[in-house]
Structure formats: structure tokens, C-alpha cells
Amino acid sequence: MKWINRIIMAILTVFVVASLTFFLVRLMPGSPVQVMYLELIQKGIPANQAMNQVNIILNVIPNEPLFQQYIHWLGQIIHGDMGQSIQQTGVPVIRLIFNALPWTLITVAIGLLISFFIGVLLGVLSAFVRERWTSSLIDNIGSVAHAIPQFVTAVALLYIFSVLVHWFPSSGAYSIEVFPGFNGPFIMSFLYHMALPVFTYVLTGFGAWTLQMKASTVSVLKEDFMMAARLRGLKQNTIMGYLGSNSILPLFTGLMLSLGAMFGGSVFIEGTYAFPGIGNLLATAINTRDYPVMQGCFILTTATIIFANLIADFAYTKLDPRITD
Amino acid sequence: MENVLDVQNLSIEFPTETGVVRAVKNVSFQIKKGESLGIVGESGSGKSTVAFGLFNSVPDPGRISSGSVRFLDGRNFLKVNTEERRRFYWEHISMVFQASQNTLNPLLRIRRQVDDIAEAHQFNKKKLRQKAQSLFEMMYLDTDRVMNAYPHELSGGMKQRVSIGLALLLDPEIVVLDEPTTALDVISQGSVLKILNGIRKELNISLLFITHDISVISEVVDSVMVMYAGQVIERGPVNQVMSSPTHPYTLGLIRSIPPLVGDVKNTKGISGSAVQLDLLPKGCPFYSRCDMRMTKCSEIPPPWVTLDNNVSVACHLAKNEGGDKNDRTQEHFKTI
């Protein structure tokens, strides 16, 4: 019963955020009508003719009050229709999102899992050798990697591996010579193209996990039950199990939230590598004031984060006996 | 009777930034089968460090600098390799920890933790669970509930009794109890002590009872050892030490027990605070706080003197003024 309430609350939250973004995106200076109108004027078309043409192309009612636009949008969204792109006239937003989503999901998921794995390993290692120079080396590498912004790391990797040594391609998700589908050459080409984006996700992501895991492991190592486990003569791998399960638990929420956030991709990383994912779709939509696409992307990221949070809360009650629902 | 535990000249030191601090100095004692010994002293006197020394598991960065620890098998336990040590733990010596509430893994049910002990020491899981149940029953615990509970579902006193039960699980010859009742309220304290006394007699197990509260142990132990600044300063049968303490420090400890009835004005604390271990005088470590100090006390370490009543004491006063002090304690006890 409690979980049903939570789910209803989550849906309401998504709806409220979606409504707010509806107004927020329209508060931005500039509009798609203006973008297209100015383009036509520049081509030498007279002003009122240009306006008519814009209205026909975009299929909008000129100067419709914002509130009526909102009512209109509500009618659409209740039917699960996110509208159509303005710039790529007539293409449904859903289709744009579903075209972009797989690229983002696969790269971010791989990057996230690798960085989580590396972070946890380094964190445990650093906790074990604490008060030695190796530990502060690991901690500093973690902090620096975490502190460098994604676009700096992305540009640096692009410059080194793509411009200087030509090991990896600089853009795209696959080579134009392969045919997308479940076939060997395509998968190889995809893996080859996603190497740099994934590497960037890993480099910018593992630091935070390392620091969190170290802090968590150090505090569990000091727990009385660890000393007790040793003096009870428990086997080394049992003791490591005690340590691992207790220290990885606090990282679980973070991991679930990152998994939720992965549907949004990274605007910076996908932008730098011209990777056709959600981040890139959103960046293009913002630049051209493509309201429906922007909103579609925002609803997707909001919904996934809110539901990942919900799943994390639920899973916690199964993982940690001290937490009940 | 043979000694279950024989500790000789155990010294434990901690390297610090300002130099090496000797937390335990030349501590020797023996425990016979079924006997129980109490170690008494204030915080920082090295009691718990001795306990971890017995396990050869002194917390970092401490190290055992000299001495030997021998159990029934006669080997020096400090020289035994890690795997043998692991097997030795809990089968021969077990411990009830200072903060027993936190010594259970919070993520596992009690029965799983019993299973883990069984697996580590190659016991039959089913039999060991039955053993645990009978031990818990001895301690007035609702066994089915406890076995299926997570640690957080039990009260502090229950967890304490679970810890004691776990300590007895593999029939060790000796159980070390490090402040087993300190974190408990008076009522749980009383019941835990009663349980311990009962079990000790029933199972003929040796106990090493570590506490700062001298009033707690008098009914549970046969003999007592008083520690100050990492050294043993007095030891003997508990009733002798309690009724006629010889060392001024022991006297102070006993005088600081508040009486059960009547005025507390006769209760007296020991003046000053525990000495810093790196600033000890050449002579007696208690010199700076002693009411009865003499000039030679600061220079000459007091020799060990064994008195008629089987009490040994390291104090310059021990020979000539023992009787006098005796009377003073008698007075104190009258007022209690």
C-alpha cells in the first residue's frame, strides 16, 4: 500500500516537473518561430508573407496564449503523445528519443559499471594501505579525476587519441561502411567508436566512487564487529564478505541514481564526440529552441531519476535489514 | 592443577610521534583450570591491551615487544603462524568484547553468524546451532526469536548475552571478558553477572574478567590483579585484596566505591588523573598521586613483596605499614 502511494507520488512529481519545464523552456529568449522567421527574412521574403509561411510550416497558431498552449499540451501528454519536432518538421519526439536512447544507454551503462568497479577496487585498496603513500596517491588521483570537468577530459582525450595518434575515430557512433543491425562488423565498429566516450565516462566517474568507497571501508574496518570476526577465527574470505557487504551498502543509492541519470547521457561528452545520443539531441534542441524535443528529453531524464530513486528505496529494504518500509 | 594460561613478562608498546609508549610492562600471570581472575584498573591502565595481547592481536600500531603467552598446549602463542592462530581462536580462547552491542555483523541474522563460526572451525552447522540454542536458553533468551533476529532487533542486554553465548560456543578453556557489563544498566548487569557465575561453575571454564569497576567483580572472580600505568601493582585472592588492600592505589580504588546506603561523604576519589605513560618516574608509577609517598618511591622501583595472606604487592610500604592500612580499610567498610 505504501509503495502504491510512493508510485503515485512519483508520477505526480514527474507531471509537475514536466509542467514546470513546459513554461521554463518557453521563458528562454528566442523562439522557434523567430528562428525560422529571421531565416526567411534573410532570404528576402517580405515580412507578412514570411510569417504566414512559418505558420504553415510549423503548424502552429500564431500568438496563441501560453495558457492555451499548455492546455493543448496537456491533452497531448495524457494520450502519451509528446508532440512533433519543430525543426525536423513532422517527426514525432518519441521517435527521435528512441533513435538516440540506445547509443546513450549502452555507452553510459558500460562507462558507469567500469568506473564503479574501478572506484570500488581502488577505494578498498586505499582503505587497506591507509597512512601510506599509496593511499594518498590513490586519493589524489581520485580527487583530480573527479574534479576535472567532463568537457576538459573529453577534449583532451579527443586531441590525444584522435588528433595526435589517430587510434580512435573522432565522431559518430559507427562507421558509414557498416549496416546498423545485429551483425559483427557493425558491433565492432560501434565498440570502436564508443571507446573514447566510454573512456571519458570512466575517467570522470571513478574518482567519486573511489573516495566514497574508501571512506566507507575505513569506517567499517574500525567497526567492532570486524575485530570480533577476526578473533572468532572466521575465515579470511568470510571476513572480507563482512567488510564488503557493509561498506558497499552506502554506495548503493548513488549507483541507482547514476543509473537513473544515465538516460540523460552527457551533453558535454556526446557533444564533443558528435555521438548521436540523448545528450546531443537535447543540446541541438536547445540551440534551435525545439520546444517539444527539449521537453521530451527533460521528461525522460526526470522520470528515470525519480523512478531510479524509488527503486533504490525499495531495494534498500531488501538489502539492509535495518531499513524497513 | 595445571595452568590453562601462563603469561610471562608480557610487554606491549605503541610507537608515537614523541617516542615509544610502553602500554603494558612485564605483566605475568597464570590462570588454572576453572579459576577466574579479574584485572582491575582505571582507563588507560593497559587492561584491554593485555587482553588483545593474549590473542596476539594488538590494535595498530601497537606491538608485543617481549614476553610469552602459553595455553594448555605449552607453545608460545606469540610465535604461532596466522592460520594456526585463526583455528586456535574461539576453540581455545574466546572473548566477550567491551562494546558487545556492536560485535555482531548488522547485516546477518544471528543463526548465520553461528553458521559462520561453524564453517570457520569445521563444526557441523546443525549441531552448533543446537548448541547455540541451548546456551541462549541458559541465558534466559527466547532462542527461536534470537536465532532468527538481526542484531538491531535485540536489546543491548540481549546482544550482550548473545555475545557471551557465542563466546562459549566452541567450549573454550578460557573466556576473556572485557568490561562485559559496563555498557549495561544495573539490572542487566546483575543478571549478566549471575549468568556468568552460573556458567563458570557448570562448565568449569576459566574466566579472565577485565573491569574498571572493582565492586562488580568481587563475586565473580577468585583472584584479582590490579594494574596501574601498564604494570601489575597488586595481586592476590579477591577477598583478601578487597578487605585489606595493601597498595595505596588499590585502597583508593576500593574507597571510591559509593556505599549502597547512607552518606557518600566517606567515598573518596583518587586525586589527580592517570599518569601519562611517557612521563613515568623512575620509581613507583603511582608516586605522583600517592598519599603515602616517601622520598625513595620516586627513585627506586618498589620490589615485589608476598604477604602472609597470599597477596603480592609492589610497594615500599608493604612490609612495615601493611597492618596499619588494614585498619583504615576496615573503618571504611564499617561505614559502607
Automatic annotation (TrEMBL), chain A:
Membrane topology, from the record: Multi-pass membrane protein
Q: Tell me the protein's name.
A: ABC transporter permease
Domain ABC transmembrane type-1, residue spans: 101-312
Question: Family per UniProt?
Answer: Belongs to the binding-protein-dependent transport system permease family.
Question: InterPro entries, alphabetically?
Answer: BPD_transp_1_N, MetI-like, MetI-like_sf
Which sequence ranges form a coiled-coil region, renumbered to this chain? none
Q: What is its main location?
A: membrane
- Native organism is Pullulanibacillus pueri
Q: Does the keyword Amino-acid biosynthesis apply?
A: no
- Cellular compartments annotated: Cell membrane
TrEMBL record, chain B:
Question: GO terms for biological process?
Answer: peptide transport
Domain ABC transporter, by residue range, is 5-254
PROSITE patterns, from UniProt? ABC_TRANSPORTER_1, ABC_TRANSPORTER_2
One short Pfam family name for this protein? Answer: ABC_tran
Key word Transport present: yes
Q: Output the SMART domains linked to this UniProt entry.
A: AAA
In the UniProt record, does the keyword Lipoprotein occur?
no
Q: Which GO terms describe its molecular function?
A: ATP binding; ATP hydrolysis activity
Query: Sorted alphabetically, which Gene3D superfamilies does this protein's record hold?
Result: P-loop containing nucleotide triphosphate hydrolases
Alphabetical UniProt keywords: ATP-binding, Nucleotide-binding, Transport
- UniProt xrefs under PANTHER family: MALTOSE ABC TRANSPORTER, ATP-BINDING PROTEIN, OLIGOPEPTIDE/DIPEPTIDE ABC TRANSPORTER, ATPASE SUBUNIT
Question: Which family is annotated?
Answer: Belongs to the ABC transporter superfamily.
The molecule here is called Peptide ABC transporter ATP-binding protein
Taxonomic lineage is: Bacteria, Bacillati, Bacillota, Bacilli, Bacillales
